Each structure stands twice: as C-alpha cells, then as structure tokens.
Protein 1
Amino acid sequence: MGSVLKVNRLSFLFFLAWCLSILLAKSTALERSAYIVHMDKSLMPMAFRSHRNWYTSIVDSLRFVNPASLVEQQSSPSLLYVYNNALHGFSAFLCKDELKSLKKSRGFVSASKDKPVKLETTYTPQYLSLNPFHGLWLDSNYGEDVIIGIIDSGIWPEHPSFKDDGMSARVPAKWQGSCQEGEDFNSSNCNLKLIGAKYFNEAVSHALEGRKIRMNSARDITGHGTVVASVAAGNYVNGASYFGYAEGTAKGVAPRARLAVYKVCWEEGNYDADVVAGIDHAIADGVDVISISQSYFFAPKFNDPISVGSFSALEKGIVVSTAAGNYGPRFTTVANPMPWVLTVTASSTDRWLGGTLTLGMGLDVTGWSTYPYKTVLQNLPLVYKKPLSSCDSPALLSTAPYGIILCDLGPFLERQISSITSSNVSGAILIASTLFELPKTFCACLVISSKDARVVINYAESNIMASASIRFQQSFMDARPSPTVARYASRGPALAFSGILKPDVMAPGSDVLAAWIPTLPVTEEGSHVSLLSDYILVSGTSIACPHASGVALLLKSVHPEWSPSAIKSAIITTANPLDNTLEPIRDLATYLQASPLAMGAGQINPNQALDPGLIYDAAPQDYVNVLCSSTFNLTQKDIERVTSSKNYNCSHPSRDLNYPSFIAVYNDQTIPLIQTFQRTVTNVGKGAATYKAIVTAPEDSEVRVSPNRLVFGKKFERHSYNMTIKFKASYVQQVSYGALVWVDEGAGNHTVRSPIVVCPFVV
Ligand SMILES: *[C@@H]1O[C@H](CO)[C@@H](O)[C@H](O)[C@H]1NC(C)=O
Ligand SMILES: *[C@@H]1O[C@H](CO)[C@@H](O)[C@H](O)[C@H]1NC(C)=O
Ligand SMILES: *[C@@H]1O[C@H](CO)[C@@H](O)[C@H](O)[C@H]1NC(C)=O
Ligand SMILES: *[C@@H]1O[C@H](CO)[C@@H](O)[C@H](O)[C@H]1NC(C)=O
Ligand SMILES: *[C@@H]1O[C@H](CO)[C@@H](O)[C@H](O)[C@H]1NC(C)=O
Ligand SMILES: *[C@@H]1O[C@H](CO)[C@@H](O)[C@H](O)[C@H]1NC(C)=O
C-alpha cells in the first residue's frame, strides 16, 4: 500500500473562494438564501400534530408573500430541515420579503443566514504517527461500547480501516441511527465498525440550483472525512504505510469504537443548515462523542451551528471535540472557542521520514525526504557547482552533469524542490536551516540541516572525484525536541470569551498516517507524479481533533458517569507541558518555549487522563453564565437561541467558570491587575487524599492559593479554593504564564495541573 496526497494550498484556496462565490451570487430581491430559523416550540398552536406540520405550514404560507414566486414553481420558499436536538426550529430557503414576513409568525425566535464552514486541514509537510495508548485501551476495552459521531465529508466505507474484523456483534443498545442508502452506498456498506452513515444535502442541493451533486451519498470523495474517522476510530490494519514510510499497524485512537458518520461537507460547498442537521441527527442517534474538524473562517459568532449544536450535545452528556483552526501563528486566531467544547490544537511527534546520504569517504548523514519510490542512488558523482547549486531553474538543472546535485541553502526550499522535480537530475541534496515542517518531496531529494551541510560541502569542494549514495524510505523515531507546537496552529486568546483559556490541549496533528481514498490520485502541483495509496500523511488541527475525540471516547467508556466537563477536565489537567528532552514544549513559530496560548495545557496524555485525581466539573447553566458576560452582549432571546431552551437566563453573568485553566486579561486601564478565581474540585481518586498546591507564578505576578491544602475524606468529596493573581508590570504588551499544580501527597501519585496565563487584551 502507499499513495500521495493531493493537497496543495492552491486548490484548497480555490475551493474556499468557490464556496464564497456560491453565497455571494445570491443577493437580488427574489434570490433565496438558506436561513436557520429558531422557533419557540412551546408556542405551537394545538391544531398541529407535530412540529414538522407546524413549520411546513409556516413556510407554505410564505409563498403568498411574493407573487412572482407563485408564477415560477421552482422558486417558492422551501423547508430544508426540521431540527429537534441541536436546536428547535428549521432551515429554509427564503428571499428577503419572505424572511420579513416569517419574523412576524407566532413562535419565531430568530433567523440566521447560512455561512460557509471550513475544513481544518493544512498541508504542512511534516510526518508523524499515532501513539498506542495502552493503559486506557485496556481499561476501556479499546472503546468497544462507545460510539463516535463524525461530522465531516463522509467516509470511504470499503477502506480496510473500517472493516469490522474483531468487533463484537453487540452494538450498544442505545444506538438509534441507521445506514442511509445513496449513490454508490447501500446498507451493506455499514457493518459492526461503521454502524451508521447519513448525509445532509438539502442546503447544498438548493444552492446548486439543479446542477447535480457529484456523490450524492455518505461516500467521501474528498478524503477529509475518511482521514478523520480513521484517526479517531480506525480498526487495526497491518502493514500500512505511505510508500514504505511510517510502516506499521495502522489504527485509530479508539480502534474498537463504533463509527457513525454524518456527511455535511460537500465537494460543492458546505452549508450551515446541513451542518446543523448532521449534529441534530448525531445527538438523536445516541453517539457518546461528536468530533468536528471544521470551523468558521470568519470571527466566530455565538449562534453558529457548531456553538448551538455543541451546547445541546453538552446538555445530553455528549462530549464535543473540535479543531482549533489553522490560522496561526498569529494571536487571537483560535476557532471554536466555546467554553463547552474541547478545542484541540496540533503538534508534531517524534517520528520523521527521510533517508540516509553516504558520502564516498564513508560518512553518513540523515535527512528529510518523502520520495515515494524504492530507488537507491548508488555511488553517483556529487556535483557542487555555482550557479547550478542555486537549484531554482529547471532549465539550468537540465544541463547539469550526471550525478547528485548539491544545492545551496536558498530562500525558497519549495521552489528548489519543484525545480528539481521538473528537471531531469538523478538526485539532489537540499539544505534547510532546520528539519521541522518541511514540504513533501516527489523528487529523489534529501533535505539535510545546515549544520550537517558543512561537512558535505567541504567534502564536495575538496574532492574532484566526490561521490555519494542516498537510500530513501526510512523512518526515524528520534526527532528532538518533540512534541512541538505546529506553526500553522491557531493561537489564543479567544477574544469572545476572554475569561477562558483556549486552545485547551494539543494532540498529534502533523504528518499523521491516516486512511485515504484508494482511487483518489493525489499529487503536488507541478510534479509529474500521480500515485495511489490506501494511506496518506496529513497535517492540520483537523487531524489533532480526532485524536482528542478518541481519547474522550475511551474515557467515556471507562467513566460513563463523568459529565462532558469532567472528561474535558481530565484531559486538560493531565496534559504534558514537557517534550521528550524534558524541557518545556517549544513553538515552531518561534523555536522558543510555547505559551499556553499556543498549546493550551500541553500534549494530551491519555493514560494519565484515565486517573486524573481531581476534576473541575461544570453544569450547562455555568456555561451560560460565561456566555452572558461574553463580548456578544446577549439578550435573553439570544440565550434561548444558543441553548434552544427557556431554562437559562443571564441572572448571574460571570467571566469565570469552574474551568481547569486560568487566564487573566488586562489592558492599560486594568493594571495593576488583581483577579480572583474561584474553583471547586471533585475527588475522583480511589478514596481519602490530601493535595498540596504548588504554584509557578507568571512573571511580574504574585499568585495566592487559599486554602493551599485540600483534604478529601472520600471519593466524590468536593472542596473549593480561591486563587488570586496580582499582576504588576511596568508596561503592557507581553504574555506571561505559569501553572498551578495540585499534588497528591499520598500514594495516589496524581498531579492536577492548570496553566495560568496573564496577557494583554490585544497581543
Ligand atoms: C449493495 O451494493 C453491492 C455492490 O453494488 C451489491 O453487491 C449488494 O447486493 C447491495 N446490497 C444491497 C442490500 O442492496
Ligand atoms: C527530460 O528528459 C526528457 C527525455 O530525455 C526530455 O524530453 C525532456 O525535455 C527533459 N526535460 C527537461 C526539463 O530538460
Ligand atoms: C457591548 O456593550 C458594550 C457596553 O455597553 C459596548 O461597548 C460594546 O460595543 C458592545 N458590543 C457589541 C458587540 O455590541
Ligand atoms: C433565571 O433562572 C433561574 C434558574 O433557572 C431562576 O431561578 C430565575 O428565576 C430566573 N430568572 C429570571 C429573571 O428569569
Ligand atoms: C473565595 O472568595 C470568595 C469571595 O471573596 C469568598 O466568598 C469565598 O469564601 C472564598 N472561598 C474560599 C474557599 O476561600
Ligand atoms: C508517579 O507517576 C509518574 C508518571 O506520572 C511515574 O514516573 C512515577 O514512577 C510514579 N510514582 C509512583 C510512586 O508510582
């Protein structure tokens, strides 16, 4: 097995521009747009048998608003979906006049226009692997009794990762979903692994105005959903690799968990109404965790479908895990900042791919490569000549003498790689200042570090007969430091919720081996290669998210009584802030220590999350209190829109929440800053325990914890404490951070760590 990923920035941006143009094209008076309409279902007139009847009659009545629409049948207002779980209401295609009239209808709460959603995958070329999380696997029986709902672009059901070999026939009893038939997809495409598959195309179909959807079923033709599903819950597949790289047994984080896929992302575009419908069904079908590797690429709104749908999921005890976005490394770019979801950013792991250069005099140098063929370059002349060594002109390269060309460190490595790929040279050695986050290579090229390059250049310059060999298709497990925060990953703070630290945690996201559509040939732009494979290496917070979703799923299986907040807390307080050199994790954007605004609490640490010692729990009303103090200035009606319920109000707005991390945001007016956080922890260890607070204060801050010792007499006992930060800085504009760690003084060996951030509002 082996393949290439057709994922280049150009086609990706093109895809986004296209989504936008679909939406922007609709603006004249009779043109209709999709609206998501929130209704107060308690106001349904008695005459209607069901909400669907009621909503249908409302939409039907709108036909008379605009006489022109009566003439032309095709353009009457139409109902898309009825929603019962993610929110209460429906979606419909309406023009401006119809919307105006709808607003006067009994029970109307609000309407919002459909916006494009974005899949979270960047193609940052760096290769990683999954970790086998043994302790949690054993305790959860690999997730056999739990179900994950994937809201994405569908699935390639025949892929070996989705076979049900070894899966028990006892599908969890609460499962209410089904396998929806469609183009190239029938009920026999589901099995004991893939227990559900549905697709939601009403909004996209409408937008296409009669043009056909290319794959009108839950079948994935873009690859994104297949990748995400395999990372979260792929079955074991032996001998998987990407052209011989990263070879081994492929598996998801929860390899025995059941998969339910909800296709809401289409090659033709993604629409809010379809996304809400997918989440609505996932909740009703009985999934335990919902994984959403998507976000809005405009500033998040409090009532976008992911916010609204995930709040309903929270109320039903469903954990929602989302991608932090790939808009980094600028600050305040974090997507999906809602306090009630887990927001996951991306890291590297310690596996990297490449080959070995052997110089004629016997020295070995390892370097980066993803050259997809088994070729070995054996004892070729080593050519180092200026201006050839700039390696940025295919024409010049085609005049090169036979041999391996040694290129100088240039400003544009990608351009050098593409020049070499489109020339006829037998092989090349390129130089980069570090070997992190390098592009994929489709040429017989090896990228070495500038440190290693000195000896290679010396040898080439001082030997007329210099020669070299290169072996490709090697995987190395020694990347140091690792993990590191990916450069592309979005950063906090989340301006909408400035009292909540986001992102929450980091998970492997760069160059992860994942299932791919075997018939989808994928090649980098400009390379003369078109290859197929069952597996690819992909990067992005889209890939990090399903890792965390899988961990949440396993935790849910072991601790079914834990609330979504408790599961999040366990994942956050056990995350590891150190790398494999036992130093603080670094940020690839700066090569300096990563702040919690980049990595949250650190790298997820599944086996520790199994037994976190203490948890910070929170109820839905607590989240509403935070929403009430957000920058959105919400009214009671807005709160009803987000929560789809009249049970919540803003009588106790609060910027703080019983959250497992701390952030204090200041501005010119608020320094010196004194802020107190109140927290309550629940003992989920085996029995009595005593914890001691250990604080690393952020620079220029004084941190007090009171009380600084917590004595628990038994399991599930709760204790409160206050933490006060006093921050004095001579001048603004710097992020400082530290941590509060509750250390179990007994045999329990728990450390419950919360990052602390003090940062200016505008960083
Ligand atoms: C589903 O499709 C496959 C392949 O097209 C076919 O062999 C099978 O009989 C179909 N199953 C059902 C239940 O329709
Ligand atoms: C590479 O070699 C082929 C065949 O020898 C030739 O047709 C082609 O023009 C060459 N490409 C370049 C960029 O020189
Ligand atoms: C919210 O209210 C505050 C104070 O009334 C105001 O300064 C701010 O502009 C408002 N924000 C929005 C988004 O309306
Ligand atoms: C707000 O909600 C609380 C709890 O549900 C309730 O006790 C209170 O009366 C509500 N306040 C208002 C103004 O609706
Ligand atoms: C925390 O501070 C609040 C407000 O000052 C106070 O009412 C509460 O008793 C304190 N809690 C603890 C555990 O000290
Ligand atoms: C406590 O846990 C750490 C890892 O978290 C481990 O290295 C250490 O050996 C443990 N100590 C005891 C006494 O179990």
Protein 2
Amino acid sequence: MQENSKIRRNILLNPGPATTTDTVKLAQVVPDICPREREFASMMKKMREDLVRIVHGDLNKYTSVLFCGSGTLNIDVCINSLLPEEKKVLIINNGAYSARAAEICEYYHLPYIDLQFPADQLPDLKTVERTLRENPDIALVHTTHNETGTGILNPIREIGGLVHKYGAVFTVDTTSTYAMRPIDIEKDNIDFCMASAQKGLMAMTGLSFIIGNTEIIRKSAAYPKRSYYCNLYLQYDFFETTGEMHFTPPVQTIYAARQALDEYFAEGEEAKWQRHLSVFEAIHEGLERLGFRDAIRRELQAGLVVSVKYPDDENWDFEKIHDYCYERGFTIYPGKMSAQNTFRLCALGAITADDIKAFFVVLEEALRKHHVRIPVQYL
Ligand SMILES: *Cc1c(COP(=O)(O)O)cnc(C)c1O
C-alpha cells in the first residue's frame, strides 16, 4: 500500500488521526491559492457531493456541510442548530463520545435527557421507546454509531426507527465508522451523520463535515441561533449561495481530503471495509496469542476499535509499553472507560494485517523488556 518515499511511515493504532498514504500527505503541497477562487469552490462542491455518496444518500434529499475543526465540532453544530425552541434533546449514552453530547447540551443550557446505559452494553430499546413516548417534547435524538471509547456498535437503524416513529430528528455520531463500515443514510434511519477527514477518509486533521437531510436543514433556519460560527443552517446557506465556506477553510487539508476521496473510491467501499476487518482480526489474533482480554464482548464490537483490559501484573506500565512501541513507529492509545483500566488498538487508517503482525513482534519485545509475564495474567 505504501510507496517508497522518504517520509517515515508510522502505524497509528490510536482512534484517529489515522495513518495516511504518502499521496494524501503530499496532496497538501499545492501552489498558494485564495479559497475565494472559483477553482476552489468547484472542488468543494464536488467534495460535498462525494461525501454524500459515501453514505449512499440521494443528492436530491441529502447534502453535506463542511466545517473547519475537529470532529467534536460536528456534535456541537448538530445539537445547537437542530433543536427547535421549547423542545428537548434525548441522548442515548453508553460511552464517552455520547457523554460529550450531554456536555454540549449543558454548555448551551439546552433541555436534555441523558439516557445512560452501561459502557459495555447496548442501549435497551424498550427504555428508549418508553422515554420517547413519555416525553413528546423530544425533538432531537443523538447517539454514537461506533462508541470509540469502547468499540461497541450501537443499533442505530433500530433506534432511528423509534425516533422517527415519535417524530423526532436523529443525529448519529458516525465519526469512527464513516468511510469504513458501510452506512446507508436512508436505510439506517439517519437524518444527520458526521465525521472528520482524519478518520475513515484517511486524510488530514482540521476538516469536519455533517451529512444530512436538506429539508430539515432548511427548516432549521427558523430555530434559535445559539452559535455564530457553528450554525448548520448558516454554513449550509453560505455554501449554497456562494459555493464557499463562510470563513476561511483549511485549504491544504481540503486538497488532501480531495486526494483521499479519490483513493477511497478507487479502493472501493467493500474492499476497504474488508481491509479494516482483516486488520481488526489480526489485532484480535495477536492479543489472544499474548493472553490479553477484551473489555467488550466480541459480538458487540464494531470491527474497528478493540478495548483491552490491563493485565494484573505489577510490571505492567502502559506508558512504558507505549514508549517502547512509539520509538519503533507504532502508536497505542489509552482507554476511555471510567470503570476499568483499558488501552485501545484501532483498525483505522492506511494499514494492513501485515502491519499488525509487525506491531505484535514489537509489543511482545516490549512486554519481555519490562518483565511482564507472557501470556499476560488476570486475577
Ligand atoms: C474521533 C471522534 C470524535 C471527534 O473527536 P475530535 O477529538 O474532536 O477529533 C467524535 N466522535 C467520535 C465517535 C470519534 O471517534
């Protein structure tokens, strides 16, 4: 997958930014251009359409809106822009990324219900339905597709069906599935999904985008404006009337994303997903060989993030293992579960199962060097 270039290739097993191809890295090196030029606007127009195509959206019904910022900005924008006055948000929360949506409601002083479920379990659909039934003022429901903090895959199609039955709008944080695990925006009952370029697209940080129902965006023109910079309708309207981002776009990042989109379509949705799955399988094989245990039942995992329990070994020190691997070009990442100590290995990015095999050689060396018993021990 990688060319013979002089850029050192690091294997990022963190949940984004992901390992990129050199062609995407180098696509940032372009002649200086003012982004108000027609050439740039036409590139963004095509990009907005391609982003909708990735989730198989009908361009007559769905659009995409670009923003300059990291992925969390999308959650902020959806929640602050899509809630009518006097209405309530429901957050279906079984992990750290959905919890972020609850914090956003808190910061905007929006009425919300934080419907919490254990981080290692799926949301209970009966409870979701009862909550919707008992609270007819819920107008916006938000959850996370692949809860990146644990790697759990939430049943968005089923949740979306309930949301629509009760007449609410469904926003789904697909940041860690978009352009990896296939999504069909309409069949999956999603009104709005979102991602940033540095994850599934395997491009650079700094560009995020929301893909969603054009009619709902137009309707939201009449909703309270709670942010000046981060309003979905205002940004959409600016794109539609001028072809440009309201404020300065991340120019070079957009060139890289253009290249990444070309590479996405060249690799193909299914082939790319199978590659990520093969990386995921290789991660599990390597972990099992060393005796590591998952924090989440395997059948609940989305196929992209593995949360691994810390072994019960007095010599286990995540930082030291991280540093040993990092010095050899492999990045591992801490966990995000409050109830137990975990670390994460992710299958994002321009990597293959062979990279994972090479990683496990280094991880085993790291464990031996620091006298962690192999197979690793659990009490
Ligand atoms: C990465 C990610 C985000 C965005 O995080 P940033 O740090 O803002 O880039 C949001 N939601 C999910 C599910 C993610 O995986």
